Amino acid sequence: MAGEPQADCLFCKIVAKEVPATLVRETETTVAFRDINPQAPTHVLVIPKAHYPDAASLAAAEPGIAADVLREAGEVAAAESVDGSGYRIVLNTGAGAGQTVFHAHAHVLGGRGLNWPPG
Q: What is the residue-averaged pLDDT of the chain?
């Protein structure tokens, strides 16, 4: 059921504290933690505590929580001191776009030059 924890979801297990992660921030609706395979000096994932498979389904069902994820991404950037130099928020949707964990999440990347176009 949408929004409910999924037994086979890595990020649901992180939310439940069943799998360790290096937490950066936590709110009532979100958790932010360091990526285990960082692509930049700052690479933090911000996830909703509720399970939705991707950003689009999260936004359709829970626009307030989707806004919380984006707000927390900005707070992470400030806490990591990359807000002044610039940072990127990436929301991959689908395997073809590089999504590997099907629980909505935002990557906050910063601390180095981020070329455009990406990929």
A: 96
Structure tokens at 109: 């990347």
3-state secondary structure of 55: helix
pLDDT bracket for residue 11 (50, 70, 90): very high
Record the tokens describing residue 33, joined without a space: 């933690």
Is residue 105 part of the annotated active site? The answer reads yes
Q: Using CA atoms, how far apart are residues 94 and 92, in angstroms rounded to an integer?
A: 7
Work out whether strand 87-90 and strand 42-48 pair parallel, antiparallel, or are unpaired: unpaired
Determine which one of 51, 103, 105, 107 is catalytic.
105
Model confidence, pTM? 0.95
